[in-house]
Amino acid sequence: MQFLSHEELIGLKQYKYKACGYTVLDDIHNPVWTWLVNRLPIWLAPNLITLLASASILISFMINICYLPGFKGEAPQWVYLVTAISVVLYVNLDCMDGKQARRTGSSSPLGQLFDHGCDALVLHMMLGNIAASLGVSCGWRMAAGCLGILAPWMLAQWEEYHTGVMVYGTRFYGVLEANYSICVVHLVTGLFGPAIWRHHVAFPTVFQGLLGDGMSLADLSLIVVATAGVAQGCHNVHRVLVQPLPPLPEEERGSKHVGRVAASRQLMYLLVVCLLGGILMHLAEGRGALEGRLAFSTFGVLYALTATQLIIAHMCKQPLQAPLVPILLLALGVANTLALKYTSPHLIISSSNEVSSPAPSTHTYKNWVGSWLLSQRDVTVVVAVVSWLWYSTYVLVIINQICEYLDVQVLSISKVLARNAATAAAEAEAKDMQSAVYHATSITEGADGVRYHTKGTAEDSKPHGSSRLGGSEVDALSSYSSPSSHSGSDKEE
Hints:
Layout: H1 6-13, E1 19-20, H2 24-37, H3 46-67, H4 77-94, H5 97-104, H6 109-134, H7 140-163, E2 166-167, H8 175-192, E3 200-202, H9 205-211, E4 214-216, H10 217-242, H11 250-253, H12 260-283, H13 289-316, H14 324-343, E5 348-349, E6 355-356, H15 364-371, H16 376-406, H17 415-440, E7 442-445, E8 451-454, H18 458-461, H19 471-481
Parallel strand pairs: 1-2
Antiparallel strand pairs: 3-4, 5-6, 7-8
Helix pairs in contact: 1-13, 3-4, 3-5, 3-6, 4-6, 4-8, 5-19, 6-8, 6-13, 7-10, 7-12, 7-13, 12-13, 12-14, 13-14, 13-16, 14-15, 14-16
């Protein structure tokens, strides 16, 4: 089985990553990331760093499932604190993988695909943890909050497809700030308990006629997130569909379908996936912890599949095809749930989620249709299993194809690259010492009028606070430690 054609693999090999929109916080973190990367072992593969970052979120996600299977309730304080720590680990490790790739000479297009693919999958886990901290279960609130983050993230990938540049934020707010905001949510819950998010916030009198007397902090937070998401999404759409875009260079465009008509069609595909996922989460309200978690994770994995297909289309410079598998699986779950709700002869679900027998006037055709429908739990389980199996198969196959074509390894560095990187580091260290000794030499004139060369130690010659890197090594590392190489650009491996 193969998902990528030879033409797509050629386009992938020629791919070059471009990013912009770094923030002040990125500037502050960048020297720290560089310092940490310089102390990692040479043999540590960049993709392994990405995998470790994703594993930190996965572990916290599983812990939250164990203690809060239905998202609501109160877990031990340490659960929320561990969740906050996992976000810190994730965002910082995720910004170090590209630096390690350039340090070891193992950069490849597979690195960015692996990085962004993991981001797409991890995103829904992070949202699940946020819902657990806020105490928001499946329903329209969860759907609105999740789509407020998932839709703009997808639209950012869509914008990159048409502009060739990934925009990570403004000068003052971007991806790093968003992740630290999530940490604050978990820390607040850990320190004060989830009950704090149920605290009622009163609106000013002038707004009470329109908005009511107030709402909970959780609902207010979700409204803010959804509003910000809509604003960001509109900004993405405006830049692609309204503003005149400069034409992509031929080597970057390849066989892409670009232009307003193609962009509108692709936008419709992506919005259909998001809309069906939101409906699926809404319909899972009151259906129990298992069905709620399955519906949430089903949308999460199918969202990741759609995003991965979009990223691959961009990197391979190919047309974006309609994500039929995600659309069909989500539509199946939604359609069966709606059909059961309105036609099943076996049960009727009231607004209070109480199960009762159907009215005697139920039409015969409804009985006939209902007899062919599976229960919602059966469909939810089947759709979830099929979704995960298809996603896993797709990811494993394309990774194997790319590794074979580019002759790279996904979770390890070849011995040749590791040896060369170690040799380069040793040579740079030796040159550093020689340079330090040379510059420590001073020329003095004795009492006899003879000029003497007096050598100090290497440590004496170093200015206060200088690093162990010499000029040669600094030059060698400048490609990934320069101010322009921040969190976004570090994802190119």
